[in-house]
């Protein structure tokens, strides 16, 4: 038995040692959920699983660093440093850097933060001579983010009468034109915003079966922390990547 398993209670050990097939861990705050993920990864490494075949997704960079540090203390830094571990956005940005040219982006594409996005949206609103008190950059940005996280591109938006009716009712009938212009400007600038990092990863995996197969074979073991906070876009990425081996462990409240 791996020596570190002695630090776990019976329920935690069951979750750690069940490494094949899907596992769901639901427990309250402070019950040791993140510890289960950490020790599960250490257990996989102890059993001979290559660190390159493990993907661990967290919701903060701080959580990822702490988990990797703890794993390093258990199994050694040499193994821990090769883990694919980080936030959804950081991990999939890394994949997009490798595969970006398939989607027409440079591999050194720029990542726009929230302020960059709002500035561009404000510019588009001004150029279209729209009332900035109605078309508020923050509200438009939030609406675009919501659509992207539900995989709704400008093309999908213009094919959805209900969405357009909602914006007309909100006195923003030109929202679709802003969304389309924003998307086109980002693409021409070789830039993605934070939501694109998920949207474009979904596009990559579903448009290019060979890319999906590549990362399914790479990530034979997938772990997701704070699963209850995942959005639709994140869920679809995890579902696609885990579909081949189904060795997925999700942890949440």
Q: Layout of helices and strands, plus pairs?
A:
Blueprint: H1 10-17, E1 23-26, H2 33-46, E2 54-58, H3 61-75, H4 77-80, E3 84-87, H5 88-99, E4 110-112, H6 114-127, H7 137-149, H8 154-158, H9 161-169, H10 175-188, E5 191-193, H11 194-207, H12 209-218, E6 221-224, H13 232-242, E7 248-252
Parallel strand pairs: 1-7, 2-3, 2-6, 4-5, 6-7
Helix pairs in contact: 1-2, 2-3, 5-11, 6-7, 6-10, 11-12, 11-13
Write down the domain tally.
2
Overall, the morphology is elongated
CATH C-level class of the largest domain: Alpha Beta
Order of helices and strands: HEHEHHEHEHHHHHEHHEHE
State the distance separating the first and last CA atoms.
Answer: 29 Å
What profile does the largest beta sheet have?
A: 5 strands, parallel
Q: Kindly report the average pLDDT value.
A: 95
Spans where pLDDT lies below 50 across 5 or more residues: none
Number of strands: 7
* Strand composition percent: 5-15%
Alpha-beta content class: alpha/beta
**Rg on CA atoms, Å:** 21 Å
CATH architecture descriptor text of the largest domain:
3-Layer(aba) Sandwich
Which topology of the largest domain does CATH recognise?
Rossmann fold
Helix content percent band:
55-70%
The number of helical segments is 13
Any idea what the CATH superfamily of the largest domain is called?
P-loop containing nucleotide triphosphate hydrolases
Which strand order does the major sheet show?
Answer: 1-7-6-2-3
């Amino acid at each position: 038995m791996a020596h570190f398993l002695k630090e776990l209670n019976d329920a935690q050990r069951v979750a750690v040692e069940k490494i094949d097939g899907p596992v769901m861990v639901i427990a309250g705050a402070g019950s040791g959920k993140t510890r289960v993920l950490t020790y599960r990864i250490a257990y996989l490494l102890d059993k001979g699983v290559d660190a390159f075949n493990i993907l661990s997704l967290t919701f903060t960079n701080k959580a990822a660093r702490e988990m990797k540090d703890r794993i390093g203390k258990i199994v050694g830094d040499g193994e821990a440093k090769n883990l694919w571990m980080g936030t959804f956005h950081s991990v999939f940005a890394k994949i997009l850097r490798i595969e970006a040219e398939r989607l027409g982006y440079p591999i050194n594409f720029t990542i726009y933060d929230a302020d960059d996005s709002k500035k561009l949206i404000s510019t588009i609103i001004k150029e279209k001579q729209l009332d900035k008190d109605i078309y508020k950059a923050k509200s438009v940005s939030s609406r675009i983010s919501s659509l992207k996280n539900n995989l709704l591109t400008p093309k999908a938006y213009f094919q959805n009468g209900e969405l357009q009716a909602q914006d007309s009712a909100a006195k923003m009938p030109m929202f679709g034109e802003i969304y389309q212009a924003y998307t086109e400007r980002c693409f021409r600038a070789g830039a993605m915003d934070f939501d694109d990092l998920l949207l474009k990863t979904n596009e990559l995996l579903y448009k290019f079966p060979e890319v999906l197969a590549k990362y399914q074979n790479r990530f034979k073991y997938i772990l997701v922390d704070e699963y209850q906070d995942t959005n639709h876009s994140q869920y679809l990425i995890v579902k696609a990547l885990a579909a081949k081996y189904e060795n997925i462990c999700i942890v949440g409240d």
